[in-house]
Design a protein that fits this description.
Elements: H1 14-24, H2 31-38, H3 42-61, H4 65-117
Helix pairs in contact: 1-3, 2-3
């Protein structure tokens, strides 16, 4: 891959990287052939391609600070809401349980009361 007598470049300019990536994204062009033509390792070109895709994704998703704060607040509100729902369900179970216990204790007391008053 390396040509004899040529000094290797260890840091490539941003424009060189971008050109290499754009060449490799052309239809019908293989990453191997672009790498060989530019005298760089195919893995390096693949890494540049991944960085390019990642950067493109970030640019699409870029948001301002106010929106980011609103998203953080919304996440916190959703967590709080889920916690409150869980607490509500627990309270409903506790009320149901105590109501059943009260009904049991009242049903145990009623027959005795009738038995005492009937004599």
């Amino acid at each position: 891959m390396a040509k004899p007598g040529l000094r290797k470049i260890y840091r490539y300019s941003e424009s060189f990287r971008l050109s290499a990536v754009k060449l490799s994204f052309m239809p019908g062009v293989a990453v191997q052939s672009v790498a060989m033509t530019l005298d760089i390792h195919p893995f390096m070109l693949s890494r540049w391609r991944a960085q390019y895709r990642e950067m493109a994704m970030r640019k699409k998703v870029s948001i301002d600070e106010e929106t980011a704060n609103q998203l953080r607040e919304l996440k916190q509100i959703k967590r709080d809401y889920a916690r409150l729902q869980e607490e509500h369900e627990l309270l409903k179970k506790a009320i149901r349980f105590s109501s059943e216990q009260k009904a049991k204790s009242l049903s145990l007391l009623k027959p005795r009361a009738k038995g005492i008053g009937s004599k």
